[in-house]
Amino acid sequence: MALYKTFTVNKTTKVLIWKIEESIKDLKVDISLSQNSVTRLNSMKSELHQKGFLSIRHLLKNVNYTDFDLVYDQFGKPHLKDGKFISITHSFTFTAIIISENLAVGIDIEKQREKILKIAHKFTPIEEYNTIANVDAKISKLTIVWGAKESLYKIYGKKKLLFLHHIYINDFRFADEKTTGAIRFNGEEYIYNIQFLEFEGFTCVFAY
Q1: Dihedral of the CA atoms 33, 55, 93, 75 (nearest 10)?
Q2: How many whole angstroms separate alpha carbon 182 and alpha carbon 46?
Q3: Distance between CA 120 and CA 135 in Å, rounded?
Q4: pLDDT tens by residue, 94-129
Q5: Which end of the chain is more exposed for a tag (fewer CB within 10 A), N or C?
Q6: What share of the chain is helix, strand, coil (3-state, %, to 5)?
Q7: Contact criterion met (CB below 8 Å) for 17 and 204
Q8: Distance between CA atoms of 59 and 170, rounded to whole angstroms?
Q9: Interior CA angle at 108 toward 106 and 110, to 5°?
Q10: Longest Cα separation, the chain
């Protein structure tokens, strides 16, 4: 089984990343699913989505949880029954979770693709990136910004936030592998730490 990377954020917060290399049959070994999860799994038309769903359950097993410990609220946000915080992500051949005893958390994995250049204006002031001449560097930076905003959106956990107008990511250097971000909504502001890493053409961003 392919636990790809673990990352200790602090004493109470941990990130686990899985690289999906197994068959669906192999991923079904040694995990138990609730009836609701079996129904969800069987309704998925994409084999990639099925593998992502199952590999998340293996990540849970790595931190001593099962599918039965995971519940979803009315907005689709995952929660652990014991009150700890969790966030989940899946992109192509990678899945990840972040889990914390005491901090609200969000995580996102994205494949680095040129497509992001076409949609960037929908989630960030694109003129801020015009000084980046290298296309690959621009794709990389925009993917981090998107992942950061997605992570904050997951922390907030409700549907009304707009990436362009309510979620802000402070500028950063690639070498720092971290920045900060804010949610500004309904006259309130919430500040979060953001960290990121890149591997095999993917970007993982997490916030807390």
Answers
A1: 60
A2: 34
A3: 13
A4: 999 999 999 999 999 999 999 999 999 999 998 888
A5: N
A6: 35, 35, 30
A7: yes
A8: 30
A9: 170
A10: 52
The predicted pLDDT at position 1 comes to 60
Residues of the chain with pLDDT under 70: 1
Can you say how many angstroms the Cα of residue 204 is from the centroid of all Cα atoms in its chain? 7
CA 113 to chain centre: 17
pLDDT of residue 160: 86
Q: 80 φ, ψ to 5°?
A: -100, 140
Domains in the chain, please, with CATH? 3-102 (3.90.470.20), 108-207 (3.90.470.20)
Residue 17 to residue 84: CA distance in whole angstroms: 19
Q: Which pair of structure tokens corresponds to residue 124?
A: 């960030």
Q: How far apart are CA 98 and CA 59, in angstroms?
A: 10
- pTM of structure: 0.96
